[in-house]
Amino acid sequence: MFTSLFDGLESRCTLELAAVRTQYPSAAPRLTAEPCVVHWEEAMDMLRDAGESVSGLDDLSTPHERLLGKLVADKYQTDLYFLDRFPTAVRPFYTMPCPDNADYSNSYDIFLRGEEICSGAQRIHDARMLSDAIKARGLPLEPLSAYIDSMRYGMPPHGGAGIGLERLVFLYLNLDNVRKASMFPRDPNRCSP
Questions:
Q1: Distances (CA, A) of 183 to 71, 75, 100, 118, 186
Q2: Which of 3, 71, 137, 165 is deepest in the core (most CB within 10 A)?
Q3: CA torsion, ordered 51, 114, 120, 99, to nearest 10 deg
Q4: Residue range 33-54: mean pLDDT, rounded
Q5: Beta partners for 107?
Q6: Mind giving me the DSSP string for the chain?
Q7: For 62-95, how does the pLDDT look when each residue is reduced to its tens digit (9 = 90+)?
Q8: Mean local confidence (pLDDT), 53-69
Q9: How far is the C-alpha of 35 from the C-alpha of 181, rounded, in Å?
Q10: 80-84 and 158-163 as β-strands: parallel, antiparallel, unpaired?
Q11: Alpha-carbon span 134 to 25, nearest angstrom
Q12: Rg of the Cα trace of the chain?
């Protein structure tokens, strides 16, 4: 999807991109023909080999994400990659654990130029497994009872993802601030247009 989107931008919006790139110089992201998927364990090895201290089951800091983006770009010659198998402990309670190792989850982030543009996962669709996951996080079951019950009534395996459009534009154009990709940016000092 992203490869097609980016190829389309470069081929159908050349004049617009040239105008933007006059003011904000950037090159099209490097892409691979097939999706580049880096599993969490490999990512941790890459960071450790680069001299970073990472535990392996904690979430990545922003500096680690950016460094990993550079390491992946150097190794795989791409600016776009999937980071797969996040630790279960750093994902929401409803994220499906990996069948081969419950310390990891069936979840991923998609990175462009070393920063996240999309996050997704398979969700737990079994009521008992979901209840156990909620209890394991020390959360009360009662406020989530309707959600748990929906799984009892026949929920198929499912998942989802969320794409940050402004982050996508900001990183695609290699801008220096995400606010430049938003028509009406919001921050603590600006809450109206």
A1: 33, 36, 45, 20, 10
A2: 71
A3: -30
A4: 96
A5: 121
A6: -HHHHHHHHHHH-HHHHHHHHHHS---PPP--SS--EEEHHHHHHHHHHTT----SSSPPPHHHHHHHHHHHHHHHS-SEEEEE--BGGGS-TTBPBPSS-TTBBSEEEEEETTEEEEEEEEEP--HHHHHHHHHHTT--SGGGHHHHHHHHTTPPSEEEEEE-HHHHHHHHTT-S-GGGG-SS--BTTB---
A7: 999 999 999 999 999 999 999 999 999 999 999 9
A8: 93
A9: 26
A10: unpaired
A11: 47
A12: 19
Residue whose entry in the numeric block shows the structure tokens 């009534």: 153
Q: Which two tokens mark 112? A: 């462009």
Q: 21: which 2 tokens?
A: 């790139």
**Scanning the structure block, which residue is given the tokens 């990709």?**
181
Tens-place pLDDT, residues 134-188: 999 999 999 999 999 999 998 899 999 999 899 999 999 999 999 899 888 888 8
